[in-house]
Design brief:
This protein is of the alpha/beta class. Helix content is about 45%, strand content about 15%. The strands form 2 sheets. Strands 8-7-9-6-5-10 form a 6-stranded mixed beta sheet, with helices on both faces. A hairpin with a 5-residue loop joins strand 5 (about 150-155) and strand 6. The structure holds coenzyme A. Coenzyme A (COA) binds near residues 171, 172, 276 and 293. Coenzyme A binds near residues 131, 147 and 171.
Amino acid sequence: MFGELIAGLRKNPKTIVFTEGTDARILEASSRLLTSNFLTPLLVGSEEDIMKASEDSGFNIRGAKIVDPARYERFDEMVDMFCELRKSKGVTPEDARKMLSKSNYFGTMLVKMGEADCLLGGATYSTADTVRPALQLIKTKPGNNIVSSCFILVRERATGDNEVIAMADCAINISPCEDELVEIATEAAACAKKFGIDPKIAFLSYSTFGSGKGEDVDKMRNACAKAKEVIKDYPVEGEIQFDAAVSPRVARTKCPESILQGHANTFIFPDINAGNIGYKIAQRLGGFSAYGPILLGLNAPVNDLSRGCNPEEVYSMAIVTAALAD
Ligand SMILES: CC(C)(COP(=O)(O)OP(=O)(O)OC[C@H]1O[C@@H](n2cnc3c(N)ncnc32)[C@H](O)[C@@H]1OP(=O)(O)O)[C@@H](O)C(=O)NCCC(=O)NCCS
C-alpha cells in the first residue's frame, strides 16, 4: 500500500504541517521524509528551539520549513481570517491572537491559508485539541454535516499480498444517528477506495437480518436501508453480525440471501464503543497494522496521532495524510 501512496506523492509532492515541531519523534520522521522528495515537513515552533531539538536528538532536518507563530509575516492576515471564520462566535482579534499563539490553531490556519496541504498533530496534544481546530477552521466539506473517521487496517497474507480493510467510525462520533451513519459509510467507502479497497460495506450489529431485536438493531437496519438509497457504486448490507459479514461459511448459514456472502471489507460500527474496541481487537489480536484515525468529511486532510506514537507511526501517518490531499 505505501509503495503506491509514495508513487502518487512523487508525481504530486505535498507539504505537511507538524504542530509539534520540537518533538523528537516528529524530527525523526521529518528527517526520514526529507531523504526523499515527495513530502516536505513544515514544523511549527521557534527556529531556535527546533534546531536545538534536532541537534540534541541527532536528526538532520535540513530542507524542512520552519514557521514560528511569533515571527510569521502573514500573522495579521491570519488573525483577520480567523476572526472571519469564527465570527458567529464573536471572536475578537485579541482572542484570535491568543489562540493562534498555540501551534494546534496556528498550524491548522497554515493549511487553511494554503501554506501547506495537510496537517498531522497529536504527538503531545489530545485528540480533542488536535481535531477541534480542524472542525472549527477547516470545516466540513460542502454537502457534509459531520466530520467522522476511519481506520485502514493492513495484514500480510501467507501469499505475500496484503489484506486491507476499513473500519468506521472508531474515533470521533460517540453515538451517530442513522443519517450520520449513512454519511460515515459514504465517506469511509470513498476513503477505502483511495487505499486500494473495492468497498463492500457492512452495517454491523449483534443481529443478522432481524435475528435479534432492539433499538440498536433498528438503528443499523434503518441506516443501512438509507445508505442503499445514496451509495450506488458499492454493495451495502445490514444489519449484519461481524461473523456473517466476513465468513462465507457463516454467511451461508445465517443469511444465505446475503449479497456480500462473507466478503465485507468496509465495516460501519453502531457507535464509538464498538468501533474503537473493534479496531483494537483487529490490531492487537488479529495481526493487522492500523492506520488512523483518518478524519473524513473535512475540506483538507488533518489527522491525529496517538500520544504514545513512535517515529515509524508518525512517518506512515504523514504519508497516509498527504495521500489524501488534493
Ligand atoms: C470530535 C471531538 C473531539 C470534539 O470535541 P470538542 O471540541 O470537545 O467538542 P465540542 O462539542 O466542544 O465541539 C467543538 C466544535 O466542533 C464542532 N463539532 C464537534 N463534533 C463535530 C463533528 N463530528 N463534526 C463536525 N463538527 C463537529 C462543534 O460544532 C463545535 O463547533 P463550534 O466551536 O463552531 O461551535 C469529540 O467528538 C470527541 O471527544 N470525540 C471522541 C474522541 C475520542 O475520545 N476518541 C477516542 C480516542 S481516538
